[in-house]
């Protein structure tokens, strides 16, 4: 039985992604999360004109990398439980990526699936796929690192000096 913030999650329940990711304004790309587990989830969104890399009614398929990264961020926050706030994470590598389509049309509804392949401390490797009902736009294996809160605080302090 999956749980979302302390209550039973039904098969198709949607959870707003806003509380699970640190991204805002133009960079808040994923809208909904569903079926989170300890090792993966599905996210949904609709491509809008305000997205980065938008040109002539379509965004570059490279945006799929960011969609997968945001889904990873949402999973990380969800896993820490009720009241958790999103942490800063780093996309540290792309092991494999396939882009069957060059662009993604504005207005299309996307599904983003991620699954953790393995994790060592704060470093993890995820498999991700971004698709619509009709097309796959990206299949990727991403390396991500989640920083401990105190590490980020120390870096911010050094930047001010």
Tell me briefly what this model is.
The protein has 161 residues and is an alpha+beta fold.
Distance between the first and last residues' Cα: 49 Å
Categorize the overall geometry. Answer: globular
Q: What is the CATH superfamily?
A: Hotdog Thioesterase
How does CATH name the architecture? Answer: Roll
Strand order of the largest sheet: 3-4-5-10-11-12-8
**Which consecutive residue ranges, at least 5 long each, have pLDDT under 50?**
1-11, 151-161
Radius of gyration, Cα only, in angstroms?
16 Å
Multimeric organization: single chain
Helix and strand sequence: EEEEEEEHEEEEEH
Q: How can the largest sheet be summarized? A: 7 strands, antiparallel
Helix content: 10-25%
> What is the level 1 CATH name?
Alpha Beta
User: What proportion of the residues form beta strands (DSSP E)?
Assistant: 35-45%
SSE blueprint and pairings:
Layout: E1 3-4, E2 7-8, E3 15-16, E4 32-34, E5 40-46, E6 54-55, E7 58-60, H1 63-80, E8 89-98, E9 103-105, E10 109-120, E11 123-131, E12 136-146, H2 149-160
Antiparallel strand pairs: 1-2, 3-4, 4-5, 5-10, 6-7, 7-9, 8-12, 10-11, 11-12
């Amino acid at each position: 039985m999956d749980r979302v913030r302390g209550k039973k999650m039904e098969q198709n329940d949607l959870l707003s992604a806003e509380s699970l990711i640190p991204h805002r304004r133009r960079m808040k790309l994923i809208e909904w999360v569903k079926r989170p587990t300890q090792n993966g989830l599905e996210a949904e969104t609709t491509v809008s004109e305000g997205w980065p890399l938008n040109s002539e009614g379509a965004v570059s398929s490279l945006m799929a990398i960011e969609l997968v990264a945001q889904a990873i961020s949402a999973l990380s926050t969800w896993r820490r439980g009720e009241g958790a706030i999103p942490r800063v994470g780093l996309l540290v590598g792309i092991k494999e990526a396939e882009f069957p389509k060059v662009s993604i049309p504005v207005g299309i509804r996307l599904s983003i699936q991620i699954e953790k392949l393995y994790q060592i401390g704060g470093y993890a490797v995820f498999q991700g796929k971004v698709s619509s009902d009709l097309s796959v736009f990206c299949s990727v294996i991403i390396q991500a690192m989640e920083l401990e809160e105190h590490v980020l605080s120390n870096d911010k302090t050094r930047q001010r000096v």
